[in-house]
Amino acid sequence: MDRQPVRAQHEDTALFEAIRGGNHTLLDRLYLDHRAAFVTFACRQLFATEEDAADCFQDAVIAFYKNIVSGRLQELTCSIRTYLFSIGKRLVYRRNHQRQREQPTDHEAGVQPADELDWSLIDRFEHEHQRSVLLAAMNKLGEPCRKILTLYYYHHYPMNSVAESVGLPSAGATRIKKMRCLKELKKLVKP
Amino acid sequence: MNPEDQQNRIDDFLRGRAKDPDQFARDLEIDPRLREETDATRLAFDAIRVAEDQQLKDRLRRLEAGLAAPAEATVIPLRPSARRNWLGYVAAAAMILFLLGYFVLRPAPSDAVEYALNTVEPFPNLAYVITKGDGGPDPVRAAAYTAYESGDYPAAEQQFNALGSEDPNDRFYLAQSLVAQGKYGAARTLFRELSTAADFNLPQEAAFYEAVARLGLGERGEATAALERISAEADHPMRAEAATLLRELE
Predict the structure, then answer these.
(1) Nearest-CA residue of chain A relative to B130?
(2) Label partner for A70 (CA 20 to 30 A): which of A132, B45, B103, B216?
(3) B65 touches chain A (CB under 8 A)
(4) CA distance A29 to chain B (A)
């Protein structure tokens, strides 16, 4: 694949830096800049509904963001639009596939009772249940803990930056607080 | 291995930063306690990830909803009304009166110690994680720290006393509650004990607050000497606070 021009690479570097710094308004801009084109593409070429297309594009933007924050994506070898479309396309394919599996079984066609069980749905319900347990645990945690753990473990901020963001007096104090917050969260998520 | 070192080792393994992941994997097989802690940490990491993803998703959903239903435009007059101009003049006059009053009525400079003490912030709660909903397994401790975090120091003092704990963390925050209420004598005694306690994580912080308590008790010379020592220590966690306090005292 052809590499991007130098100017575009500079722009990407600036974007990556801003995203790593927690600038969420850039996510909004990315979404708004490319959303209409993706929805048109997904509806026409991939036969997605507009709602599914928009939902998948939201997930594509989030995946892009997470890849940058985690350091998995250091440099783009294509344009941002191409990258987002490539993730979004895969998500729409998967969504279309799920939609087909969720079609109601035609009982009149003499299908066996065991075939009525759609395991993918059951798996998803279990997955959703686990997800809601984890979300509830985080919601139960107070705001300082939530913020400290998110900045440290999700955004990979160094401890002194976490201290500055949450207004704690030192990196040492923040490290102690982080240990206690993690201990509490572990108690809350234990099955 | 102490609990913090063990947790750091688990963190490194789960975040792909372990120096010897194979050794860790072998340890996991033979150590059920390590396995249990690793599983709980993995779930905690999942919770952090899921919650942040959800926040981002909610943000983009709101953006999408805004695209579907644009807000109604509000007509803003190009020229401000005469009534708004009048209100502006009243606000400006009130501000001038307030500033005049402040400079005329402000306390004499001899109250420098009191000013300085007012700049000292109570230490943030690092000891107890307050969870929403129930009072947890330890309702008195939860009530004490909740009162402390909300700035209700008399209630915090009362709850810490009801708790009657010998835990240095609880005693540190009891002393903080006392300082915040100007009860410097009792606070100084507690901070002095804590500044030399062996099983306590924040002895340097306790030493700083002992100096604050001494300042409150009128022992300005001793307090200043202690603050100077703290501000001269390059690695002291309260170095900046001590320097600020000294500047306020000048």
Answers:
(1) A142
(2) A132
(3) no
(4) 10
Q: How far is B54 from chain A (nearest CA, A)?
A: 8
Q: Tell me how many degrees the CA angle B246-A167-B47 measures, rounded to the nearest 5.
A: 160
In sequence order, which ranges of chain B are alpha helices (DSSP H)? 3-14, 21-30, 32-68, 82-105, 112-118, 139-149, 153-163, 168-180, 184-195, 203-216, 220-232, 239-249
pTM of model > 0.90:
no
Partner residue facing A58 (CB), from B46, B50, B57: B57
Q: Give the amino acid at B26.
A: R
The pLDDT tens digits for B8-42 are: 999 999 988 888 899 999 999 999 999 999 999 99
User: How crowded is the C-beta side of A36, counted as CA atoms within 13 Å?
Assistant: 5
Chain A neighbors of B146, CB-CB under 8 A: none
Separation of alpha carbons A106 and A122, rounded Å? 19
Length of chain B: 250
Kindly report, residue by residue over B165-186, the tens digit of the pLDDT. 888 889 999 999 998 888 888 9
Residue B142 in this model has a pLDDT that exceeds 80: yes
pLDDT score for B85: 63
Those residues whose C-beta lies under 8 Å from the C-beta of residue A12, and which sit 6 or more positions away, are: A4, A75, A76, A80
Q: What is the mean pLDDT of residues A102-124?
A: 51
Q: In angstroms, what CA-CA distances link B197 with A177, B167, B206? A: 19, 11, 10
B63 contact A CB<8A: yes
Contacts with B40 from chain A: Cβ below 8 Å? 186, 189-190
- Partner-chain residue, chosen from A167, A169, A190, that has the shortest CB–CB distance to B237: A169
Name which of A31, A167, A176 is nearest B201 (Cβ-Cβ): A176
pLDDT at residue B98, rounded to an integer? 67
The predicted model gives B213-230 an average pLDDT of 89
Give per-residue pLDDT as tens, A27-74.
Answer: 888 899 999 999 999 998 888 899 999 999 999 999 998 888 888 887
Q: What is the 3-state secondary structure (H, E, C) of chain A?
A: CCCCCHHHHHHHHHHHHHHHCCCCHHHHHHHHHHHHHHHHHHHHHCCCCHHHHHHHHHHHHHHHHHHHHHCCCCCCCCCHHHHHHHHHHHHHHHHHHHHHHCCCCCHHHCCCHHHHCCHHHHHHHHHHHHHHHHHHHHHHECHHHHHHHHHHHHCCCCHHHHHHHHCCCCHHHHHHHHHHHHHHHHHHHCC
B235 against A178, higher pLDDT: A178
| Residue of chain B whose alpha carbon sits nearest to that of A148 | B48
